[in-house]
Amino acid sequence: MKHVYFIRHGESEWNRLDKICGAIDIPLTEKGVQQALETGRNILRENIQADMILCSPLQRAVETAKAIAAITGLPCRVEPRLTEQNFGIWEGTSPRNAEAFQQAKQQFAAGFHGGESMLRVAQRVYNLLDDIRNDPEDRTYILVSHNGIARVVRSDFEELGNEELARYAVPNCTVTRFDFPEDAVPSAKEPVRDVRHVDPRAEEQVRTIATYAQAHPQGGYLLFFRGHATPCTFDSVMQAADDAGTPYTSVCFWDDDSGNLFDISYREVPEKLFCNGQMVYSFHEED
Questions:
Q1: DSSP 143-164
Q2: Model pTM score
Q3: What is the pLDDT of residues 191-217, one digit of tens each?
Q4: What phi-psi label fits residue 138: left (phi over 0), alpha (psi between -120 and 50 degrees) or beta?
Q5: Contact 110, 119 (CB under 8 A)
Q6: Closest residue by Cα to residue 179 from 129, 136, 135
Q7: What 3-state class would DSSP assign to 258?
Q8: How many whole angstroms separate alpha carbon 151 and alpha carbon 259?
Q9: Which side of the chain, N or C, has fewer Cβ within a 10 Å radius?
């Protein structure tokens, strides 16, 4: 099945400072550089096959793509349509998850007073995805870009509500695979493409949880997982849990790097939410 991979750039200076970063050109931190190099090594370890890397022209994406290319040997070129959305008056403000900003992102036709609307971003990103889908050489691409672009890419593969789309985010240097449908027109009634974050360890670990859950069928489990700079990610965990028949009510993630707990929208979660009497099964990546 034809597919495309998406990677968000490594940690940038404004990620570290919790500032909203769109079209302003901000470099990676040293941690971000190391994340990119580790992602390249993960691509080799997981035998991900691709023909070319396309990256946003912003330096945090270019630096990430070049680091991955140096490890994998893949050719790399800049693709302007992968440039991050311009968030106008919100650029450089903090915190990144401010509720007013989240609400503003749901106004898809608005341009943030001098920025770029979600509709205009979608136009260029959907055109790029159509070009990749119809590539006469049938090449497989790795796209290195930004959270704003990740939202639009996902929306081309899966039906999302306005709030869900606006809040969707992926961790730095997470690798996501999107499968194109066999037919050219996605169904509006049901997902036709498998959206999965590439991390086979999640599947193995969820199967271990499922074995125990099937022997103790109380239901209402909370999946809790943790990781480092390139963690197992939500979609992979939920897909693996569904495949294994493991019942769960929610998914949370403990980020070892920041020491924060996040829910499925990658928002911080107060630890008191775990004091609810539910069964909690936890697993983590090998150190």
A1: EEE-HHHHHHHHHHHS---HHH
A2: 0.65
A3: 323 333 444 444 555 555 555 455 544
A4: left
A5: no
A6: 129
A7: coil
A8: 25
A9: C
